[in-house]
């Protein structure tokens, strides 16, 4: 049975806000019967300043708020405001579990140099266990976008994965696509996969690593790529068997390196409960090769699952002697900061979705500042629970989504200003 876990993704830009901020709702979902609902996965900018994202529910082929989902674009309107365009509605069969084109996307999108969008769906496909898809824009900008399924996930197969989760895909300079699934593989504890262009528009799929428990289990997010092509990620479980987290541990940070066409995994850090547990987090990499992320729970005495949590840093030791773990912060405002962090101007930015309506926060060193508290009562018109995080434009505005709240209670796209 597939299990859902909700988290946040952040990107790195410059010119970010540093103090208490004000919020503007750019769009409230559920505005019409064909609109998407419950936006997830964060946002993506194109070079023209348009925003792209996904919703987990709604769309042309699903009534009200159930199933299916959409890919949408938000464009700055002439004068003021933003205009939404639905680029694609999943599941024209009306059954979210049997849609050959996929349904129920959870992860954000990436874009290649030609303007194609890539993402994953949690359900649908040939086996009902999700897909990797590509959306191609119409020629000349007029007409419908075209969806192509690049890979179909399958249940509990050693040569496939299932439950791609919340982590967006990543693409290297050669056009190879990398991602993770939280299930499938040799031990059904998740995989890291690669899709390589075959030259005819199709892709060849390969599994780079199957998790087994001691080396990690249940990777909820995708992988980050450093300057030399190494891959970095987290697993929610696995690792230290003395930590009671299921699958023999409370999660870890891993590295995958390639040599002679083969990939090898190194465990960089195992969480032990005292330093935190359940790193449901994407990894961010700074210019010095340091790794940053968040863990969902723990970090100080008296913390339980869904409370506290924190931010960590892993720094490479001189001479290649492993990594040094630094505990940067234990969440005190909100809770469960599973967002990962955005790096900008010597500050870290993140979100919390639990412990209340959620917040956007920043860290300078180990000092936290809350930029915004969600849920203006009584109806949370500003949004509720920023399950996926923010990105920034070059002028210093932060953008993100909340999966609930807004004028229709079905989620919003927001921006934060100084």
Structure report:
The N terminus is likely disordered. The strands form 8 sheets. Strands 1-30-29-28 form a 4-stranded antiparallel beta sheet, with no helix packed on it. β18 and β19 form a beta hairpin. It has a single domain, classed as Neuraminidase. The chain is mainly beta and 418 residues long. The chain contains no helices and 30 strands.
Rg on CA atoms, Å: 20 Å
In what order do the strands lie side by side in the largest sheet?
1-30-29-28
Shape: globular
Number of domains: 1
* Number of separate helices: 0
Distance between the termini: 44 Å
Strand content: 35-45%
DSSP summary, beta strand count = 30
What can be said about the biggest beta sheet? 4 strands, antiparallel
Structural class: mainly beta
* CATH architecture classification name: 6 Propeller
The name of the CATH topology is Neuraminidase
* Percentage of residues assigned to helices: under 10%
- Main CATH class: Mainly Beta
Report the uncertain regions.
1-15
Question: N-to-C SSE series?
Answer: EEEEEEEEEEEEEEEEEEEEEEEEEEEEEE
- Rounded mean pLDDT is 87
């Amino acid at each position: 049975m597939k299990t859902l876990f909700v988290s946040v993704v952040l990107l790195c830009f410059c010119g970010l806000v540093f103090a208490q901020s004000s919020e503007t709702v750019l769009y409230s979902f559920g505005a019409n019967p064909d609109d998407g609902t419950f936006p997830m996965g964060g946002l993506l900018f194109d070079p023209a300043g348009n925003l792209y994202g996904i919703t987990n529910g709604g769309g042309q082929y699903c009534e009200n708020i159930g199933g299916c989902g959409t890919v949408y674009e938000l464009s700055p309107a002439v004068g003021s405001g933003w205009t939404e365009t639905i680029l694609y509605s999943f599941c024209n069969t009306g059954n979210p579990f049997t849609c050959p084109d996929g349904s129920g996307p959870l992860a954000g999108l990436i874009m290649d140099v030609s303007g194609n969008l890539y993402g994953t769906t949690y359900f649908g496909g040939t086996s009902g266990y999700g897909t990797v898809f590509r959306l191609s824009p119409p020629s000349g900008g007029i007409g419908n976008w075209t969806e192509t399924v690049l890979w179909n996930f399958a249940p509990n197969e050693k040569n496939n994965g299932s439950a791609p989760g919340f982590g967006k895909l990543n693409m290297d300079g050669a056009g190879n696509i990398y991602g993770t699934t939280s299930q499938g593989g040799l031990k059904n504890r998740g995989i890291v996969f690669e899709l390589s262009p075959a030259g005819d528009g199709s892709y060849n799929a390969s599994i780079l690593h199957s998790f087994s428990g001691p080396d990690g289990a249940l990777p909820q997010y995708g992988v980050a790529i450093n300057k030399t092509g190494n891959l970095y990620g987290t697993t929610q479980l696995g690792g230290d068997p003395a930590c009671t987290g299921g699958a023999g541990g409370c999660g870890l940070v891993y590295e995958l390196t390639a040599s002679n066409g083969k990939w090898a995994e190194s465990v960089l850090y195992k969480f032990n409960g005292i330093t935190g547990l359940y790193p449901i987090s994407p990894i961010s990499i700074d210019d010095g090769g340091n790794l940053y992320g968040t863990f969902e729970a723990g970090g100080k005495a008296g913390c339980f699952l869904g409370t506290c949590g924190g931010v960590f840093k892993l720094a490479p030791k001189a001479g290649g002697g492993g990594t040094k773990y630094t505990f940067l912060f234990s969440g005190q405002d909100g809770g469960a900061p599973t967002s990962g962090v955005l790096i900008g101007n010597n500050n870290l930015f993140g979100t919390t979705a639990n412990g209340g309506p959620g917040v956007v926060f920043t860290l300078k060193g180990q000092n936290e500042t809350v930029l915004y508290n969600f849920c203006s009562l009584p109806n949370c018109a500003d949004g509720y629970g920023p399950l996926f995080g923010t990105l920034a434009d070059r002028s210093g505005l932060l953008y993100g989504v909340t999966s609930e709240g807004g004028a229709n209670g079905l989620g919003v796209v927001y921006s934060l200003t100084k």
